[in-house]
Amino acid sequence: MQNKNLKRVDLIFGEYAAEKYKTLQNALKRSPEEIINELLDSGLKGRGGAGFPTGLKWKFTKQENSAVKYVICNADEGEPGTFKDREILCRVPRKIFAGMAICGYTIGAKQGFLYLRGEYRYLLPDLYKELDIYHEHAKKFGLDFTIEIRMGSGAYICGEESALFESMEGKRGEPRNKPPYPTKAGYLGKPTCINNVETFVTSLMIIRHGAEYYKKLGTQDSRGSKVFSVSGDTPVADIHELELGMTVQEFVDDFGDGDTKAVQIGGASGMCVPRKKFADTIIGYEGVPTGGSMMLFNSTRSMYNILHDYLEFFAEESCGQCTPCRVGCQQLLKGIEAVKRGEKKPEYLETLKKLAATMKTASKCGLGQSVANPFTSIVNNFREEIIY
Amino acid sequence: MAKYEVNLKINDIPVTVEEGTTILDAARKVNIHIPTLCAHPDLCVAGNCRVCVVEQKGARLLQASCATPVSEGMEIYTNSKQVRTARRHIIELLLSEHNADCTKCYKNGNCELQDLAHDYRVSDNELLDLLQFKNYTIDDFSPSIIKDDSKCIRCQRCVRTCAQLQHVSALAVAYKGEHQKISTFFEKPMHAVVCTNCGQCINRCPTGALVEKNYIDQVWDAIYDEGKHVVVQTAPAVRIGLGEDLGLAPGNRVTGKMVAALRRLGFDSVLDTDFSADLTIMEEGTELLTRLKKVLVEKDDSVALPMMTSCSPGWIKFQEHKYPNLLKNLSTCKSPQQMFGPLAKTFFAEKKNIKAENIVSVSIMPCTAKKYEAERPEMRDSGFQDVDYVLTTRELAMMIKQAGIDFEHLEEEKYDSIMGESTGAAVIFGATGGVMEAALRTAYEIVTGREVPFKNLDIKPVRGFEGVKEAKVTIQDVKPEWGFLEGAELKLAIAHGLANANKVMKAVSEGTADYHFIEIMACPGGCLGGGGQPIPTSPEIRQKRMEAIYEEDANMPIRKSHENPEIVAIYEEFLGEPNSHKAHELLHTHYTKRKAY
Ligand SMILES: Cc1cc2nc3c(=O)[nH]c(=O)nc-3n(C[C@H](O)[C@H](O)[C@H](O)COP(=O)(O)O)c2cc1C
Ligand code: SF4
Ligand code: SF4
Ligand code: SF4
Ligand code: SF4
Ligand code: FES
User: Fold this and answer.
1) A86-139: per-residue pLDDT in tens?
2) Which ligand has its closest atom nearest to the C-alpha of A80?
3) Separation between Cα atoms, residue B282 and residue B280, nearest integer Å
4) How close B390 gets to chain A, by Cα (Å)?
């Protein structure tokens, strides 16, 4: 292992044996309002990528006047370079179910679902084993909240919350128009609180230790800690739970191979930070936020190839319903190919950047809206590699 | 919950609308036009083309105005720099994967994408032409519809139409990303799936991706062929729709001008489907009374009630696929088009002393399913294909334009005889509820000897655009031979659009409905909203067409089918009586069970 300057945290994976649904049992003695205030106070933002304050999401769903509400755990984990949810599902499933149950109790839902990425099917036997244990405890506690597992089928877009609902309803996974937001009309049109796997676990731990404890970690805008999926040119490709608020430089010092030229933060849909900006880019909401994916690239990598891979991914994984994203992705992909081959002049990259800007503002969902992140950051910082 | 009012500003103009109103509709209220492609007044919101995006002050994202409800204090800009840039990009993107050979395209001149491209003049489009990477296919296997994927902009209007209005879902979205397309079950061709050929998707497709299969050239060839006698029949709803494709506003009745135009085009006999609509009433009305007698008096369970109308071939195919166990409930009567067909090549041929093989029978229909119907193997009772070519209202308009006829200024002319005389009861076949009304006008009178007890014969309860209408008629003081109907209460239902038809059929098949007679039309509004009618369509346009139909009825000298002198004559001279052996041979048919997918 290398020099370890960054603060390691063991909130997500730690204290597992002791958990035994104790936190859930204690939470049930508190009022929903108290729980929501605890979360609001903690400053926790969703760990699935979009970063919406979790306490607020629970509050909004609770406020909806509906006899039927749902809790959904988004375990579709499709973002390239992200594999932390798999580890959580594998190692601490009890914490996920307990977190979902607290959410159910808080917002007034009786039914929860875990939407599991199709490729994670092999986790099912262990998940079901734990689920039985959960249901026994829920019964013992007199908590009317059951959890079911639903399988995804491999489309990246089905991780987008409204496409996920469509998929669960047996329809084609296409994102919906917003508003209405899930807290008002989600699965089957009912108020739905959907959170990432890590969000539920973190919420559980905040309820267990209190907001004060959690707030000691991280910064004003980026509270707490986060599980990072570290991959690429690194000797320590793995998941690592770190306190938020570090700079990319600090991160690279700990995880790089000494030759890091760029870090792609937040997966294919995230931002590419070049070496010259490592020192003054903070990983977090004040800088570049991430759902957890950190891909390190050293000087042997072609940034053209990397961008090309990402664009191929988006051209393939766009649901295809809306024009800016469906056609825009193809134009960006074929466009850099044409520039590379000399069929379009280098200035064509400017045309493409403008197009990417339109995709960012005019696409229907987060997929199309984020293609400009990798595109513009890579083209701006590695223009030569794209052209020649 | 009472709706409250929302105040907002659009391009700095204040506007107040009800909550729930979209930005698009709010803008229309202050006469600000926002372009759209995927939005359609008949369909649920999609929000996928994004051409309608607008800027909202303070928002990070542009908003799809068709899909975004207004909120208090909103400030919207529909023509800001950002909006214009995005809109142009979107048009350019659509065109970049589009086979934009407008001059060769069937929709040239009536295409919403072309209109946008025209308005925005995106000729300096720098983006790559993606056609080179595409493997688009054309499906022209169906007798009614051509589907050309190279013209498709993926707005999904067709998908929504087929699912939401028609409950068929023959079309669906397949694949994702760059490969996303509109397709069918296992990508089979359109003639091999549950498609009913209703053409409603065609009516709403903004481009040339879905169009009718056209037979204009074949009809011109027949007209030019000296050896052929070309007869043409015109369906009820054509006369109230045709004007729209020839420069007139919706709701214009152009019967006389249409007849004149058809003569100028060179048709040898200009005849009327309305004649055979009257005939349908005689046959179907008699069939209904016979079924009632068999069930109510003779307790004969070989015949089924409720009886359902059979004039709408899209509906027939729907029933064959979805409710094959209810086929015995369908009236055995052919549609008016297909009653006309064999008569033209037998009765008419004999009377006019023309050899049947020299008759080319053309029909002008508001319908694309009739193209398919004409090709059904059962429809050859004259010994030939009974109806040779079926043209839509739109195709007739094209022929009139091609022939350089100044339609608007034509003098009105009358149909030829024989098979050209009709009544007001026939023309209302073109509106939902019309067959029911026409049947009641005749059947009630046959049974009681008196006119239906409605002012001016207008049976208002069966009119209008409500999805499913129900009515009850109590029959009293019947003639002696109809004694079994004394005091009977006939329960009637009327549905238009196959989604509504499905509601009624579901109830019938589950045994929760006790109707005696059901009228079903495949298309919204009935034939006046048929898949072969002028494009565009909307509730307002169909309303105008409906008003025109009832005006036409009110202005007819005869308004009851059984009083049509040509109908009286054809029974005396040729058919004998309704449901006679000969009538069964020529005017009735049978149905085929089909798979549910
Ligand atoms: C294309 C796309 C894919 C997404 N995939 C995931 C995913 O796999 N897992 C996830 O938790 N959130 C994913 N999201 C974000 C979800 O839409 C949603 O914001 C999240 O589940 C909310 O949970 P959180 O508030 O706990 O982050 C995706 C979003 C988009 C636009
Ligand atoms: S942005 Fe892309 S993924 Fe999202 S709705 Fe549009 S086409 Fe589908
Ligand atoms: S569909 Fe419209 S834009 Fe496309 S070629 Fe035809 S007329 Fe032109
Ligand atoms: S013709 Fe009618 S049934 Fe066939 S695809 Fe179109 S809308 Fe559906
Ligand atoms: S076929 Fe027509 S209606 Fe259907 S998606 Fe394509 S362009 Fe739209
Ligand atoms: S018209 Fe609004 S998105 Fe298509």
Assistant:
1) 999 999 999 999 999 999 999 999 999 999 999 999 999 999 999 999 999 999
2) 1
3) 5
4) 35
Beta bridge partners of B109: none
- For B523-546, how does the pLDDT look when each residue is reduced to its tens digit (9 = 90+)? 999 999 999 999 999 999 999 999
Nearest Cβ partner for A179 among B49, B69, B133: B69
Let me know whether B74 and B125 are in one domain. no
- In the block, tokens 């899930």 appear at A182
Which residue range forms the structural domain that includes residue B40? 5-79
> pLDDT digits over B325-335, tens only?
999 999 999 99
Question: Any residues with CB less than 8 A from the CB of A180 and at least 6 apart, and which?
Answer: none
Question: Into how many domains does chain B fold?
Answer: 4
CATH C-level class of A17-215: alpha beta
Buried b (16+ CB within 10 A) or exposed e, B375-414: ebeebebbebbbbbbbbbbbbbbbbbeeeebebeebeebe
Query: Which residues of B are annotated as catalytic?
Result: 284, 287, 311, 331, 370, 373, 378, 527
Residues of A within 8 A of B62 (CB-CB) are 361-362
Please tell me the distance from the alpha carbon of residue B281 to that of residue B336, in angstroms, as a whole number. 9
Question: Which residue's CA is the closest to the ligand 3 atom numbered 8?
Answer: B102
Pocket test for ligand 3, best of B91, B151, B158, B535 (most atoms within 8 A of CB): B151
The residue whose CA has the least distance to atom 1 of ligand 6 is B36
As for the ipTM of the complex, it is 0.95
- Is this prediction's pTM over 0.90? yes
Q: Give me the CATH number covering residue B385.
A: 3.40.50.1780
In a domain, B121, yes or no: yes
Tell me what pLDDT residue A3 has. 52
Q: Is A362 on the interface with B (CB under 8 A)?
A: yes
- Residue A247 pLDDT > 90: yes
Confirm whether B90 is domain-assigned. Answer: no
CB contact under 8 Å between A323 and B130, yes or no, is: no
Query: Do residues B504 and B583 share a domain?
Result: yes
Each domain of chain A, given as residue ranges in start order, spans 17-215, 303-387
Tell me what pLDDT residue A1 has. Answer: 44
Looking at residues A264-290, what average pLDDT do you find?
Answer: 96
- Ligand 5, from B114, B115, B145, B157: best to mutate by most atoms within 8 Å of Cβ? B157
Chain A residue with minimum CA distance to B47: A177
A268 interfacial to chain B (CB closer than 8 Å): no
**What CATH number is attached to the domain comprising B13?**
3.10.20.740
Q: Express each pLDDT in B371-404 by its tens digit.
A: 999 999 999 999 999 999 999 999 999 999 999 9
Same domain? For B292 and B206 the reply is no
On whether both B341 and B306 belong to a single domain, the answer is no
B461 token code pair: 């309860």
pLDDT 10s digits, B456-501: 999 999 999 999 999 999 999 999 999 999 999 999 999 999 999 9
Q: Please tell me the residue having the least CA distance from ligand 4 atom 8.
A: B162
Rounded CA separation A49/A285 (Å): 11
User: Could you tell me which residues come within 8 angstroms of residue B570 by beta carbon, excluding any fewer than 6 positions away?
Assistant: B279, B343, B347, B418
How many whole angstroms separate alpha carbon B378 and alpha carbon A344? 60
The region that residue A377 occupies, defined by phi over 0 for left and psi between -120 and 50 for alpha, beta otherwise, is alpha
The answer to whether residue B287 is domain-embedded is yes
What are A40-49's pLDDT values in tens digits? 999 999 999 8
- The partner residue sitting opposite A315, judged by closest CB among B67, B89, B177, is B177
Q: Per-residue pLDDT for B2 more than 80?
A: no
Residue B98 is assigned to a structural domain of this protein: no
Q: Which atom of ligand 3 is nearest to the CA of B109?
A: 7
CATH of A303-387, one of 3.90.580.10, 1.10.10.10, 1.20.1440.230, 3.40.47.10: 1.20.1440.230
Cα separation, A40 vs B364, in Å, equals 68
pLDDT of residue B1: 57
Contact present, A274 and A239 (Cβ < 8 Å): no
